[in-house]
Amino acid sequence: MKQYPTPPFPKQPQAVPGSQAKMDPTPDCGETSYKGSGRLQGKVALITGADSGIGRAVAIAYAREGADVVLAYLNEHEDANDTASYVEAAGRKCVLVPGDLSKRETCLELVKKAVAEFGRIDILVNNAAFQMTHQSLEDIPDDEWVHTFDVNITAIFRICQAAVPHMKPGSSIINTSSVNSDNPTPQLLAYATTKGAIANFSAGLAQMLGPKNIRVNSVAPGPIWTPLIVATMPEDQVAEFGSQTPLGRPGQPVEVAPIYVLLGSDESSYISGTRYGVTGGKPIL
Predict the structure, then answer these.
(1) Are 36 and 90 contacting, i.e. CB atoms less than 8 angstroms apart?
(2) Domain assignment present for 17
(3) How many domains is the chain built from?
(4) Is residue 267 part of a domain?
(5) The CATH number of the domain where 238 resides is what?
(6) Contact between residue 250 and residue 263 where contact means Cβ atoms under 8 Å apart
(7) Beta partners for residue 73, in sequence order
(8) Which of 84, 91, 253, 275 lies deepest, with the highest CB count within 10 Å?
(9) Can you list the residues of the chain whose pLDDT is less than 70?
(10) How far is the C-alpha of 262 from the C-alpha of 260, rounded, in Å?
(11) What backbone phi and psi angles, to 5 degrees, belong to 46?
(12) In this structure, what DSSP letter does residue 65 have?
């Protein structure tokens, strides 16, 4: 319980979307610690928001569990190349696909490239997200509200719609929701609203795809130490980030990755329509 950093953290403002390489302390995505055991051997995974943070941790874990990986990201090329190096070091194939997921054509092209490279998608992890902090409703720009929905939930719909025809029975879709889905932070109103939508979408889609034997679940992380935090939250909140949890610290991405491994593996063959919290002790409903 004491092996990971605790607040207070130094001031470290960054521009959106943020760079993991510039964070202090550097997030632990399992680069040196995650050990695989072949639980995803031979599978093909498409992961969005995979350059850093939770996406990077999932990519590293998946590769070490035996999966080839398609990494989708916005424009953080340095972080993405670093993530790819860990995937390839695990002996797995890695395809990098940059692009803005708020655009429909980017979502469709992402799936097209994954299928062209591997012929199928066994695990789809919709993890990319955007957020900004605002103190009042009046402060939220209309275009930012729309952009948050386009990235966080509309992209998931578009990617799932394009990917499902290329997913065989036994495949898995995992969508990243948040503890904000049922306990919203008011200063993250747009983000929290989309995370509630993701939880609902996942539960409904699980029922829709059940007859195809495609499982759908969502993961609800609590405060996890990622570039999104330092790039979108006020410095005073960053300094104390995670201190409000029962464990008194933020989670590290490597601590979230194992639930994505379970949900992507055949071990979870009867798990669908469920949301899993990784919250440092803060309950989800």
Answers:
(1) yes
(2) no
(3) 1
(4) yes
(5) 3.40.50.720
(6) no
(7) 98
(8) 253
(9) 1
(10) 5
(11) -110, 120
(12) T
The token pair at 247 is 């464990």
Cα R_g (the chain), whole angstroms: 17
Helix axis angle, 142-149 relative to 189-209, nearest 10°? Answer: 30
Strand ranges across the sheet with 123-126: 94-98, 68-73, 44-48, 123-126, 172-176, 215-221, 275-278
d(CA 128, CA 102): 10
Q: Tell me, what's the pLDDT at 3?
A: 87
Helix axes 253-264, 53-64, angle to 10 degrees: 50
> By three-state DSSP, how is residue 213 classified?
coil
Domain assignment of residue 131, yes or no: yes
pLDDT digit string (tens) for 181-219?
A: 998 999 999 999 999 999 999 999 999 999 999 999 999
> Under DSSP, is residue 11 helix (H, G, I), strand (E, B) or coil?
coil
Give the type of residue at 83.
T
31: DSSP letter? T
Structure tokens at 178: 């948040």
pTM: 0.96
Residues designated as active site: 191
What's residue 271's pLDDT?
98
- Largest Cα separation within the chain, whole Å, is 51
